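Example 3.2
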Amino acid sequence: MSSAHPATCPNCGHALQPDHRFCPACGQATHLHRIDGHYLTHEAVHYFTHADRGIFLLLASLVRQPGIAARQCLAGQRKKYFPPLTFFLLGAAIMVFMSKWIGKPGGEALQSVKAALQNPALSPAQKQELLVAKRSMEAADFTAQYANFVNMLATPVLVIWMYLFYRRQRLNFTEHLVANLYFVGFTSLGYSLLFVPVFHFVKDGSSLYVFLLLLYFVFEIGYRSISYYQLFPELKGKGGGWRCILASICSTVFWFILSFTAVGMYVLFGG
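Structure, written as tokens:
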């Protein structure tokens, strides 16, 4: 790519002046570099670490003041923070990667159950027991492989509850959804990086496994409660903290009942 200053913007064709570093019409840089390996590396590093919207700035904000970060984004400071949908999808992708890389492999057990089902000597009771085991493994495998899809499905369901609970706080449903893209994205990262590696070494169904699962739910509920308490400063001093905890508990229980019912119906009656 030539280093000479172009007369018109290569992107939109707008006329440029010699002192223009960026196109006044579309904002693209006037001096472009040839696309090569260095260009891609630079763009990737720049996208994730740029000072006014880097992911590390967002992560620091979501650790210290998640509700304030979401409130500032909703109020118009959108260039300051990493895009909420991109962050949410990144968190879901890391969850899938960690679950497949570190999570317990269940393929061999599932294949052995499928092979056992081919035995013609099985009694109806034995066959039903194996079918339930097969569906349970398939449900667990689906959750691990498609955690991003499950997360995307769970988030609007949780948001419906939070929107109804905080309907007097004058945020519309989409604004609640954007705030929760940050909150859920962060808890997904926490689960992926802190809990998945530990679950790898813990026996399923053991008391330690149950304790860790409960610990994660406490983390998720607590984080959402703090986030909403910061999101709505008018809740301070009016029992708002307990209200946020109650709303977060109810939303988690609502999703748990809904998902548990769906999985249970598949395990018991699925094809």
